[in-house]
Write a structure and sequence with these properties.
This protein is an alpha+beta fold. The protein has ten helices and 23 strands. The chain is elongated and about 80 Å long.
Amino acid sequence: MSFSPYPEYKDSGLEWVGEVPSDWESWKIAHAFKRIGSGTTPPSTEGKWYEDGEIPWITTGELRENVVTYTKKSVTREALRAFPALRLHSKGALAMAMYGATIGRLGILGVEATTNQACSVMESSTDLAVKFVFYWLHCNRTTIVALFSTGGGQPNINQEAVTSLRIPAPTLTVQTHIARFLDHETAKIDALIREQERLIELLQEKRQAVISHAVTKGLDPDVPMKDSGVEWLGEVPAHWDVMRMRFVCRITTGDKDTQDAKADGQYPFFVRSETIEKSDTYSFDGEGVFTSGDGAGVGKIFHHFRGKCAIHQRVYLFHSFHKISSTFFYHFLRSKLEPVVLSQSAKSTVDSLRLPMLQNFWMTSPPHEDQELICNYINSFESQTLSLLEECSSSIKLLKERRSALISAAVTGKIDVRNWQPPVDESAFDEEVRQAGMETTA
């Protein structure tokens, strides 16, 4: 699919926009929309503003370049009366996040709703099509945030900056047509992205299943089996041993805290958050397997080959292996620890692992020659799988880049889509896009 440029261009008057088609006009958001407002947050400690609320209340976390039809919280009619800033915005209005990590994120109201104070809401325009503005703001988000936001770690765009934005645009009819074109074309790209994401999920599920089967059932489908005596292990090859973890390795924890890490330290430092920093001390010399006892890294398994390192006081180190090689141990643990142990783990604010759970964790112990064959098989399978995963990730990246480029080209007039029509055999697909709530809203 290729499109020609417009016949003539002119300077848009905005340095960061460049040239636009000669018949396009520039609209200031404050002049194009009849109502631009925000909202507020009723005190969360006073449940009467939210309990049995029937009016959706939108936060910036719910703006994800989507049509917002559901919110985690709703407010009551009484809240509307008590808080004048809590305005009711109409279906089809455009909301933009002004603060923090979500700054610049967008959403179109699929229902009448209120918002918190971090949302700027634009509605009721006879000059700009909401969906055209949606796409224009989306493709220019990075630039807008860079040019108009203030603050350091938590940048924000104030309401005045939003209303002062100027948007070059064609006639309302052409805007609507461009938005319909983008609805249709981006939906096709999104469908391809979802296919790749689903393929990644299937590959990861297959990788987990293959590793799990290899370390518990072996590679020979005809080998005689026996009951392991462990419910979650089921049958294992008859010539394999089954034993608790404390009999196949030593389990220790570190004595370092996060502040012990040094940026110019000599050795890797394994910490709870799954990151590896540098430390100038070490507590382990050799080959080991690690997991975090709690926090973000709990249940995630790492294999360290490089010798000396230091470990955090809530990181478990498995080392000094016998009966099982460190590599087989690593594959077994990453396929079984999280689904088995964490389902039985102590619960507080986070999942956690306790030393007795690990010491008594059941493991298979095949003969060394079986372990070597299994590890070689897993390594080969993983190499193929990782290659496929990289292809999928690369495809997703390219599709997203193409999507962004297409939106930018259409809403800035770099391509002329005025003669575009959806293929006849895709009319049903186009209708599905509109029915999904992403139809053009003026």
